[in-house]
Write a structure and sequence with these properties.
- This protein has 140 residues and is of the alpha/beta class.
- Helix content is 46%, strand content 11%.
- The protein has a 3-stranded parallel β-sheet. A two-stranded parallel ribbon has the order 2-3.
- Helix 1 crosses helix 2 and helix 1 crosses helix 3.
- The longest helix has 14 residues.
């Protein structure tokens, strides 16, 4: 089983929304990774917003967190300068706040991989020059 997985919004949404075009792929990935996965509050916020019209979507997210399948160990206050620097560096991509938090998490958590549907993670670099290990569909 893959460990130290950092979870991005798109995959969380796809796991919970059966109508999402990546639902099958996301569920397959979810079944092969060790839990808990880790993420940041920005991802939880984005996913709740995107799933607000999916019956039970927001509750499902809260359930994943309360049952310990998803953990939120990231503390923005401690990382504000690093996040601001990343967002400035990638402003032409552009980099969202959530993406900056996930890139910073990849810098802090040795051996981590980002589980994502966002091809921008192939552009982003951790520690300025290192490629980020990603788990992403082949077509992205």
């Amino acid at each position: 089983m893959r460990r130290n997985i950092i979870l991005d919004t798109g995959v969380l949404v796809a796991v919970l929304d059966k109508s999402d075009r990546y639902h099958t792929w996301a569920v397959e990935q979810w079944s092969t990774i060790a839990k808990p996965v880790i993420t940041c509050e920005a991802v939880i916020s984005e996913a709740c917003f995107l799933l607000q019209r999916v019956y039970g979507g927001e509750n499902a997210i809260m359930g994943l967190v309360s049952r310990g399948y998803v953990e939120v160990p990231f503390h923005f206050n401690s990382e504000v300068n690093a996040i601001a620097e990343l967002m400035q560096k990638y402003k032409t991509v552009p980099m969202s706040f959530a993406d900056a938090c996930l890139v910073r998490m990849s810098e802090l958590i040795t051996g981590s991989s980002v589980l994502t549907l966002d091809s921008d993670f192939r552009i982003y670099r951790k520690n300025r020059t290192e490629a980020i290990s990603v788990i992403i569909p082949d077509e992205l």
